Amino acid sequence: MDRRYVYLDNNGTTRIADEVVAFMSENNELYGNASSMHTLGRQAASGIEWAREKVASLIDAENDEIYFTSGASESNNMVLNIFRDRIDSGDKRNRIIISSVEHPATIETAKYLKAKGYHIDYCPVDGIGRLRLDELERMLSSDVALVSVMTGNNESGTIQPVKEAAELAHKAGAFFHTDATQAIGKIPVSVKDISADYLSLSAHKFYGPKGVGVLYARKGVPLSPFVHGGHQERGMRAGTYNNQAIIGLGKAAELAKAGLEEEHDKLWRMREALRKGIEERIPGVVVNGSNDENLCLPGTLNVSFPSAEGESILLYLDLEGIEVSTGSACATGSLEPSYVLLAAGLDVELAHGSIRFSFGRYNTMEDVDYVLEKLPPVIERVRAMSTRRI
Amino acid sequence: MESFMAQWVYTDTVKDHFINPRNLWKDGEDFTPDGVGEVGSLACGDQMRVGIKVCDGRISDLRWLTYGCASAIASTSMMSEMAKGMTLEEAYHLTPAAITEALGGLPEHKFHCSVLGDKALRAAIDDYLEKNGMPNPYKATTAKIICECKGVTDHMIEELVKEGKVNNMEELQRATGASTACGKCRERVLEVLNECLHIYGK
């Protein structure tokens, strides 16, 4: 087989869909400031409201529950900041619980708050990286303000029991936030079904443009601005509207809703073909997370290769045109490997040797074949150099 | 139209050694070392084993294995080329800085964790001298005083960590008194201690 270019880092970010690029380009005249009263401004506002409706429809929300942000990182920060404000104002509910496998946008923000003296607790996960509901129940009490649990994990692909977690949070009188960034476009996500009070998402994870996302906030829940300085988004998020990006997000949401089932099946087929192929061809592999279709995001396959280090695997694969990510410490620039895999109880060595393959709509079964041709010799090569034999 | 070229994460020399590692210790190869040294651990993400052959006081041949990232592989490979032909004394004084320079540089965060080849080489030389009942005149000469008040050297810290006698700062202070007087050296002592803990996989 000739050298190909196989992008398998779709959990990192996705290529903007051709339809989205075309739509943004067709609407290049939509440059007016949506806050202005003149025609071009009102036209832009109408485009933004169209996008709001598309996103609302995708997650089963009302239009006025959608707040455009720069992405899920900002949305996650915004949610934690709302509760920081409330705690600062003397709210007796002064504890925040997040899962131990949240995205850095949540976990690092929580750590920052903890360093400032706020009460943050981390709810542990089980061996596949799924939230321990029994632990959450035990941790909850009348002093908890917010519980934040992601819908699906970016590294392991593990789908979280968010509906059950929300129910427990509500029973204790706490609000519930879910970071649905990885789940959107891959599995059905309904704020009504989950009973979420807040939800974060980013356009670029489902074929929309980068730098735009949403915070969903259920009507009546506490809200306070994170970015000050303008009346946009009902005073909750200042800054001139990023028209093109927002309508791109709207288009991506429309496509995601229409193609959800097909997308799920296609990604899962490729994921499973790769998993089985790897297990057949390479000895000693460990699949991280779950192989149950109901517990794993369809496009994510996280595998550890004992005796082989992740960064080396990643770079040898890159030389073959295959782009993946790793949970190895070397790739993170710290001495610690993936905290997500460690939280699920994975051995440190296996975490260093973990590779995440994440599929997207532009991948094909030929990509899977290509990886299955190139990966075994790469692993063999790295293992032959290693101080340990499997 | 502008086209944007991707630059590789490391220098061309690192890439070359990563793709074509020199003096790799191949399975089934007829190589009987006179001394073997191993540092690092799989848990830490880097481990190196170096085997040396010694002839007339020089490293006549050398093989290595590395579990680690690209810079760990490349730096061990580069070390193997540099050390071949050196006298034991020269080899013992090979520094991470010299290896890094020969590689055309490494990212800052890679320097401490991945350049361990020189330490594995020193361990192999120690092993060779010990096995042959020869005195080890090099150990003392490479020691650097880290805590002046208490006269604690980096080698003392390394030995204590290697033997499992010291696993943290408190234990080191109890064992040596390092950084218990003026305290000016605290940061440096911690740095050396953490490096040793990393290298010996504690």
Would you give an account of this structure?
The complex is a heterodimer of chains A (390) and B (202). By secondary structure, chain A is of the alpha/beta class. Chain A has helices at residues 18-26, 39-59, 72-88, 104-115, 133-139, 162-171, 191-194, 243-281, 310-319, 329-332, 339-343, 348-352, 365-385; strands at 6-7, 66-69, 95-99, 119-123, 144-148, 175-179, 198-202, 213-217, 286-288, 300-304, 322-323, 325-326, 354-358. Chain A folds into 2 domains: 6-15 and 260-385, Aspartate Aminotransferase, domain 1 (Alpha-Beta Complex), CATH 3.90.1150; 18-255, Type I PLP-dependent aspartate aminotransferase-like (Major domain) (Aspartate Aminotransferase, domain 2, 3-Layer(aba) Sandwich), CATH 3.40.640. Chain A is globular, with a radius of gyration of 21 Å. The model of chain A has no long low-confidence stretch (mean pLDDT 96). Chain B has 202 residues and is of the alpha+beta class. Chain B contains 10 helices and 5 strands. In chain B, α8 (154-162) packs parallel to α10 (186-199). The model of chain B has no long low-confidence stretch (mean pLDDT 89).
Descriptive labels:
heterodimer; A: 390 residues; alpha/beta; Aspartate Aminotransferase, domain 1; Aspartate Aminotransferase, domain 2; 2 domains; seven-stranded mixed beta sheet; four-stranded antiparallel beta sheet; 13 strands; globular; B: Sufe protein. Chain: A; Arc Repressor Mutant, subunit A; two-stranded antiparallel sheet; 10 helices; 5 strands
Summarize the structure.
Chain A contains 13 helices and 13 strands. With 390 residues, chain A is an alpha/beta fold. With 202 residues, chain B is α+β, with helices and mostly antiparallel strands.
